[in-house]
Structures are given as structure tokens and as C-alpha cells.
Amino acid sequence: ALCGPFLAPAPAWARRGKVRASAGEKTPGAPVRPPMAATPAGPGTQSEPPASETIAVLKLPVLGITREVEGLLRISLREAFLHGGFNVLTEAEAEAKLSPDPSLTSCLTRSCYNRVAWALGVHRVVEGEIDHPQRSTYTVRLQMRDLTTGRVASPGIDERCDICSTDEARQMVVRAAERLAKSARRTRPEEGQPDTGILRIDSQPLGAEVVIDESPQEDRTPAAFLLSVGVHRLTLRAPGYRTIRRPVEIAPAQQVALNLELSSIPPRRPWLTALAVVSTVGAVGLGVGSGVLFYYNDRPAYDAGCMPPQALCPNKHDTLIPGIATAVGAGLLLMGAGLAFYYDNAPPKPKRIILFDTPRKR
Question: 292: helix, coil or strand?
């Protein structure tokens, strides 16, 4: 019975061979060998291969199984990875490290996975599902994800047992974990955990495209990236804004936070440009006209009865008022042209972005 008491047998690797004769029995025809001296267990004696890389088990729901059986399956899964040469973080350790930011438990982007790697101190995690859809049916699906790239790092392992007991389901979980540990290349601590740091980028406006070392990133700002130690080339760009390029130095086990503001490119308005040009030409024309009127003001008005070089003519030109009016019109047109040029080249005013906090359902 699934809910009843049961005894947890030894792991699969410990039951691969069975002793057929007890210590005091002799097999007919077998040569008698002298007893071997027992080797005392010391600090250097290891029953399992030394762990080389630390991993964590995340996103592994166990469905349709009692808590007692679930605990047994999780313990067997962890022991299988330990036997395969991996050091596995306990669930309590992983939950404690991720508790400050609950959003890290449901990552979908590389930026989020990078933050998980930074929080847990690991570069790969095990994901999957253990399901008990029917009374005697168990299914297991396991995969390993690289937190640096956010992608699945090994082929998925699928196991299914249609008619099996709790112990057989445990053996199936162990077998799937062994296959995954064997397919995933183990790395040394210095190879699996190189010197890295976190780069956090915020920008105004939000949603800017991020390019690191000439490689476009899928995530948009605000975002966080796990980068190797050294100097990296960062590029931020957004439609309608000037591109920002700058070097960023990443120190070991440090976070670099940047908040960059992109300056907007003034939008071109053809109608406003044409208006500015026409106003400028009109202002120049009126200015020339006012100058001509001022020049002829109070000068003799020659006609048929008074032609040069005769004596002074009694009539004179009176163009002062038209000259002043023309000059005022030229000035107004020139002011309008200046305003048109200004607004045609001025950046748009930034719009306020109001963020509303949506209450979380408990």
C-alpha cells in the first residue's frame, strides 16, 4: 500500500550483486582463500566518488504522491546525484537563499536565471516532474539547465512505470537521476564556478535593447546578467533614442549596478521644417523691402514736371510708415521662423510612467 509503512531498501547501486553464500559456508569446488584483513575506515576512505560540482534541484513538483513517499523519492534522487559525482544543495538551503526574492522560483528569462545562479552559487540546476497519475503508474522527467545561458544543458530523461510498487518507483527515480548525471559532463570546481559577477542594468526609458560584447541579449532593461570577470563592452539602444556605448568592468563576486538615461533623438516634422524655411525667406524679403522704403523716404519724387538735374522738386516720397510696417512684419516672420526651427529640433518631453502595484493573491 502506498500510504502504509514500508522499508526503504538500499540504493540500486548497492544491490547490483547479491551474496549467495554466507561467511561460514563453502561452495563445492571453489578453492579456499585465506581471509583478508579488514581495512579500517579512515578519513581518506570514500565509498562514493568525490563531488566535483555543486548543483541544486529546482522546479521539481511531485504530483499525486503522499508526503512520506515524496520525501523518500527526493532523498533517493539526491543520493543518486551524489553517487554520480555531484554535490547537491539541500532544499532547505536553496529555499533560504531564494527566499529574499520569490520571483526567482519561476524564472523564464536568462536574466532571471543569472540571478538564481548568483543567489545559489551554482551554475546548473535540475528540473523536471515526478507524477503519479494512476494507482500503479509513475512517470519521471528530468533535465539539467545551465543558469549562465538559461538554456537546457542536457537531453531530457523520461522514465515511466505502468505497474510498479513504491520501491520500484524509487528505483525508477534513481535510474533516471543516474542517466542524467551520466549524460551531464561533470566539471571541476574551478571550471564549473569561474570568477563571475552580476551586472544589473536599469535605463530610462525602460525596455532598452542590451548588447554585451557585440552579442545581443534576449532580455530588455531592467535586467541582470552573470558575466565573467574583466572588461565588457556594453551597448544600450532603443528606437528614437541615441545609442549608449561604454565599457563595464566586472569584479569577482561583485555586483555592478548601472542606471543609464538615453537621450532622445528629435523627431523630424516636415511641415514644421517647411514652415520655418518659408518664414525665413519671407522675413528676408520683407526686411529687404523695408530697407528700400526707408531709403526712398523724404527723397524727391521725380515726375514729368520735375526731372533731374533741374531744381529741387516740391514733391517727396513718404515711405516711412510702410517701411516701419514692413520691418515689423519681417521681424514677426523671423520670430516665427526661429520658433519653428526650435520646435523642429527640440526633443519631446518625457512622459511620466506610473506603475501600479497589483496585490498578490495569497
Answer: helix
